[in-house]
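Structure ticket #2291
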Amino acid sequence: QVQLVESGGGLVQPGGSLRLSCAASGFAFSSSGMSWYRQAPGKERELVAVINTFGHSTYYADSVKGRFTISRDNAKNTMYLQMNSLKPEDTAVYYCSGGNSWGQGTQVTVSS
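Resolution: structure written out below.
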């Protein structure tokens, strides 16, 4: 079955960096567009970034543009989200999505 497993979340100070990973299995990863979403407490889940099958085309929410970078390694069936210059408002559970499925999420907390 489709499985998406996020990792790399944690506690980081404002201005810091984290790299999230999403390991995929059970579907044709290299043929699938993939996305990162996030959900902060009391808020709706929002789209953060999207990457097409070969990684040549990406989309970013305005709130993360210039700070976050989405990428993928089709040989490893893995997607990444490099997050730099983190802000307290980036605090959320981050989810990867693809293959008509969702991961379980990884918590990112930005706080001093």
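Closing remark: The first strand starts at residue 3 and ends at 7.
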